[in-house]
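Data availability (excerpt). The following record was deposited with the supplementary files.
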Amino acid sequence: MTRQVACLILLLSFLAVGALAGTDIIPSAEGNKWTYDCYKYMRGTMSLKDKVVSAFEDTSFGSSVYEIVSIDSKANPPTFDYRETTTTVSSSGGQSSESQVDIKFANTDKEQRIVSTNRAASADDDEPDQQEYSPALLYYLRDAAPGKQWTVGDMKQEDTVTPMSAKAVGKETVTVPAGTFKDCLKVVYYSDTVTGEVDIWGKPFTMASGKTRGIYWIADGVGVVKELEIAVSTAQAPGPDGKTMLSIESASCDVRELKPGYVVNK
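Predicted structure:
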């Protein structure tokens, strides 16, 4: 049930990385590495014609490791590969879970774009998920400052599409296990729409609604020191008789806080 409900939760799982000029959301020198404490809460319900027939709730804890894997400075524009690996353990059943996503970024002196993503298959997910973006997603503007906003583009996961936008909303002081960071730029990535289908128990469910908010606190010269990601979604399909409606509603909250020992070579 865990993975099947999680398929509905379209979290913003991509961090931005900078390289050439201006304020980097994460400095992209090869060898840079950040580790975060990770806390996740998920819940979901399945209803048959407005009657709840199944419910799911789980809290998990663990860590996320983000790292720059390689850089291609000869590409035009320059690109680099970035990897995010998250390992958590459920507080209810003690079950461990690991996810990994590789992201290819392209840099210019003004912006940073997502070229492709590759989410590895896991024990709970039989198939990997690879997405190519043409044009590349406009993920971050180097002159981002409070009040600046931009359109990211259509982010994809499996057979779903989420149109994303972003806005820098202010500066705040943030305290995390790695310390206290002043004047962090607070950037919100958001979407109020999701379309497409998800496969649950071998049955296609059509996305009926979905909202996601990803909030990032960025410290100059360090990168992202804290993340808060919240998402809700509803998917529907015909019931066993082909007429009555099956509906799955899900929600999640994901918090990540930077730990000591991060490596930033600028």
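Summary of structural features: Residues 1-22 have pLDDT under 50 and may be disordered.
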